[in-house]
Amino acid sequence: MNVLIIKHAEIEGPGLIGDLLVQGKIPYQMIELYLNTPLPKPEGFSHIVILGGPMNVYEEDQYPFLRNEDIFIKEAIQRGRAILGICLGAQLIAKALGAKVFKAPVKEIGWYEVSLTRVGSQDPLFSNLPKKFPVFQWHEDTFEIPRGGQLIATSSPVSHQAFRYGEAAYGLQFHLEVTKEMIRDWLEADEDGDKKPQILIQTERKIESYKQRGMNFFRTFFEAHGPI
């Protein structure tokens, strides 16, 4: 097993994913695209994790690395690599598969509830999750479900919260990887901090069970192609 983590911004790291890989002594490489680090070939990796970021998928003129990343994702999917995209990462996977990415009806920041679809309840990664569960959100865009993809999780008013394409490509609009420290850092960096006190209170109440849920989810994802 060899994992590639694609990072788009200094403040958006792998969180629980990194913790799990270190604990399991799983080899991984992290590419920081915002530092213009070139992407390797996808065939050298069993798993690819695409993290979030403040940019939008359609801002390729401002963030030229997004063009190369689009090509990389398409090749990785064609080669059948296990791919997990989070927030921006999910939007990038959707775009690479020909789906539209656009402004969501609302900007979701903080704790929200999502529900599994019938497909989600039977999915290998999601079947151990409750039918409804809280997630941490930080996004303003959303995506269409790619042709041939399946909706895994939904909510209102942003109905597309997670999808699967084929057997090994997943996109999550929400952040299962966050730690309490990451949430604090994001809130500190946010210029519009009206929700900060409420989010911090909710985080203290939810974060321990959320951490366990996230670790179990990511362990299942990596076990799909080998033991951890």
Question: What does this protein look like?
Answer:
The chain has about 230 residues and is α/β, with parallel strands linked by helices. The protein has one domain: 3-Layer(aba) Sandwich (Rossmann fold), CATH 3.40.50. It contains six helices and nine strands. It has a nine-stranded mixed β-sheet. β3 (about 45-50), α2 and β4 form a beta-alpha-beta unit. α2 crosses α3 and α5 crosses α6 (about 195-225). The longest helix is centred in the C-terminal third of the chain and has 28 residues, at about 195-225.
Helix percentage: 25-40%
CATH topology: Rossmann fold
Q: Report the strand count.
A: 9
Q: How would the global form be characterised?
A: globular
Distance between the termini: 9 Å
Query: For the report, how would you describe the main beta sheet?
Result: 9 strands, mixed
User: Major sheet: order of its strands?
Assistant: 2-1-3-4-9-8-7-5-6
CATH architecture: 3-Layer(aba) Sandwich
How many structural domains in the coordinates? 1
Give the CATH H-level superfamily.
Answer: Class I glutamine amidotransferase (GATase) domain
In terms of DSSP E residues, the strand content is 25-35%
CA radius of gyration is 16 Å
Q: Could you list the spans in which at least 5 consecutive residues all have pLDDT below 50?
A: none
